[in-house]
Q: What sequence folds into this?
C-alpha cells in the first residue's frame, strides 16, 4: 500500500463509530488502512498473538467490497478474521459472544443515505468503541502506528440461523399478536419477519425486499415518513402493533393499533414499567433526548427502580448500562439495550420489538390503551439542523453558556423560568412545569440535534422550540432542518 493511494477523510472518525461517503471520503486502500489500524488496536488491547475478530456487513451494493478491504487490513495486522457474512449489527455483536471472539467489526452506515459506508467496532464483548477508543484508533491510522503480521481468514457458514434461533427459542409468546414488520428495504428485511413470526406473531411484511437505493424512504425509525407509512399499514390491516427497523437492525420504532406513532422513549418507559415488578430495585439508563416522565414514574418508584440520564449514542448508553449493571437502557432514537437475562447488553432492534410483544402478551389491553396509562406529554420528533462538523461542538458550547446565563438572569421561556440544567451531553434545560429543551451535536452527521417536550401543552412545546431556533439562527452557522415542527 503506497501512502499516495490512501484516502481517508479524518472527520470520518466519529464519537463511537466511523462513517464516510464512499468512495469520495474513503477509498479501498483507506479501508485496508483502517483494518490494519483496528487490528493493531485489538492486538495492543488484548495482548494476544493472533486475536480473533468477527466481521459482518450490510446489504448495500458496495458493502462487500468495503468489507473485503477492511478484512485485508485486519489480516495484515495479524488478526484472524471470522466472517459471518451478510449481517445485522446485533448479529455481529451476538457472534462475538457465541464464537468467543476478541473483537468485532460490522460494515454498515445504518440508516444513512445510499453512498455512505462505515464501521461499528468493539473489543470488549457487548460494547462498541466510545470516544476514547475512536481517538486512539484515529491516531493509529493517521500516524501509521501499525503492527504488521499475517492472520488467517475463516468463513462462518449459516451463522444467521444461529442468531435467529437464539431470539426465537428464548421468546415464545402465547397471545396472538398481528404485527406489521417494516424494514425500509434495509438488511433487517431478511431477519425481522422470520424472527417475529417465529416467536408466535402473525406478520404483515412491509418493504422487506432488500434495495439499498432506499426507493421509498430511509430505514430510520425516527423518520416521520417511515412512521406514517407504517401507520397506514397498521390501520389497513387491523394490526395490533407496527414495528419499523433501521438499516442495520439495531433500532426499532413502534406504532400502536390505532396507527399512532409512539416515540421510542415512551416505549422504553412502558417496557421498564412491565419489567419493574419482575425485577425490583433495577436501574434503567436513558439518553438526554428522552422524556422527563422516567424520573417521577409512580410504577418505577413503587418497585424502587432508579433512572439515570446519560449521553446520547449507542456506545455511551451501552457502556453506562454495563458499568451500572442496569437491567436496560433506552434511547429516543430507538436503540434499546437489555442486560441478562433479557439480552447481552448490546442494542438489538428485533429483541426490542420482542420485548414489546412480551409487554402485549402480559397485558389484556391493546397498545393504545396501555399508552394511555402514561401521563400526557407533547413531544417533538428529533430534529437535525445542518451544522458543519468542524463548527457544531463550538455552537453547542456557546449555547450551553447562553442558557446558563438565561437561567442566572431569570429569563422566561413562554412565561416559565429555567429551573434545571443538565450538561452531560450538550445542554438540556428544564422549566418549572417539567417542560424541557435539548441542543446537542450529532455524533454521526454534520448537524445539531434539537428536541423539546412539555407536559403542559403543545403550544409550550412549540414555544420552546421557537426560542431554541431563534438562538441558533443568530449564529448564522446553522442550516436547514431534516424535519421540523
A:
Amino acid at each position: 500500500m503506497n501512502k499516495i493511494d490512501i484516502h481517508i477523510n479524518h472527520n470520518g472518525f466519529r464519537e463511537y463509530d466511523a462513517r464516510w461517503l464512499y468512495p469520495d471520503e474513503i477509498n479501498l486502500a483507506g479501508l485496508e488502512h483502517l483494518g490494519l489500524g483496528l487490528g493493531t488496536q485489538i492486538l495492543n488491547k488484548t495482548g494476544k498473538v493472533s486475536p480473533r475478530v468477527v466481521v459482518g456487513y450490510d446489504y448495500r451494493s458496495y458493502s462487500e467490497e468495503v468489507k473485503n478491504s477492511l478484512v485485508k487490513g485486519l489480516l495484515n495486522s495479524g488478526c484472524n478474521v471470522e466472517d459471518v457474512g451478510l449481517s445485522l449489527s446485533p448479529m455481529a455483536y451476538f457472534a462475538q459472544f457465541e464464537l468467543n471472539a476478541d473483537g468485532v467489526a460490522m460494515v454498515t452506515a445504518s440508516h444513512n443515505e445510499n453512498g455512505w459506508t462505515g464501521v461499528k467496532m468493539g473489543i470488549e464483548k457487548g460494547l462498541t468503541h466510545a470516544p476514547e477508543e475512536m481517538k486512539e484508533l484515529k491516531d493509529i491510522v493517521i500516524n501509521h502506528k501499525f503492527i504488521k503480521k499475517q492472520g488467517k481468514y475463516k468463513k462462518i457458514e449459516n451463522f444467521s440461523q444461529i442468531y435467529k434461533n437464539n431470539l426465537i427459542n428464548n421468546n415464545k409468546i402465547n397471545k396472538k399478536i398481528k404485527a406489521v414488520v417494516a424494514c425500509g428495504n434495509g438488511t433487517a428485511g431478511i431477519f425481522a419477519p422470520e424472527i417475529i413470526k417465529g416467536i408466535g406473531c402473525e406478520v404483515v411484511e412491509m418493504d422487506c425486499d432488500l434495495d439499498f437505493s432506499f426507493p421509498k424512504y430511509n430505514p430510520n425509525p425516527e423518520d416521520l415518513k417511515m412512521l406514517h407509512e407504517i401507520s397506514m399499514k397498521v390501520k389497513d390491516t387491523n394490526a395490533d402493533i407496527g414495528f419499523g427497523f433501521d438499516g442495520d437492525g439495531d433500532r426499532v420504532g413502534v406504532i400502536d393499533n390505532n396507527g399512532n406513532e409512539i416515540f421510542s422513549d415512551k416505549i422504553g418507559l412502558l417496557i421498564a414499567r412491565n419489567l419493574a415488578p419482575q425485577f425490583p430495585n433495577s436501574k434503567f439508563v436513558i439518553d438526554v433526548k428522552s422524556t422527563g416522565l422516567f424520573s417521577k414514574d409512580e410504577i418505577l418508584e413503587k418497585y424502587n427502580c432508579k433512572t439515570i440520564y446519560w449521553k446520547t449514542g449507542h456506545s455511551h448508553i451501552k457502556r453506562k448500562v454495563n458499568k451500572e449493571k442496569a437491567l436496560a437502557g433506552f434511547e429516543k432514537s430507538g436503540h434499546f439495550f437489555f442486560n441478562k437475562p433479557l439480552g447481552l447488553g448490546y442494542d438489538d432492534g428485533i429483541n426490542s420489538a420482542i420485548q414489546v410483544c412480551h409487554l402485549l402478551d402480559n397485558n389484556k389491553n391493546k397498545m393504545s390503551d396501555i399508552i394511555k396509562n402514561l401521563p400526557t406529554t407533547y413531544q417533538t420528533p428529533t430534529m437535525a439542523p445542518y451544522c458543519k462538523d468542524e463548527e457544531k461542538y463550538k455552537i453547542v458550547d456557546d449555547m450551553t453558556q447562553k442558557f446558563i446565563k438565561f437561567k442566572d438572569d431569570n429569563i422566561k421561556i413562554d412565561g416559565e423560568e429555567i429551573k434545571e440544567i443538565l450538561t452531560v451531553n450538550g445542554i438540556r434545560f428544564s422549566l418549572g412545569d417539567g417542560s424541557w429543551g435539548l441542543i446537542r451535536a450529532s455524533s454521526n452527521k454534520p448537524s445539531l440535534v434539537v428536541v423539546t417536550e412539555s407536559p403542559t401543552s403543545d403550544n409550550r412545546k412549540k414555544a420552546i422550540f421557537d426560542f431554541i431556533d431563534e438562538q441558533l439562527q443568530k449564529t448564522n452557522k446553522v442550516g436547514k432542518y431534516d424535519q421540523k415542527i
Observations:
- Residues 389-408 form the longest helix (20 residues).
- The chain has three domains: 3-157, 162-372, 378-473.
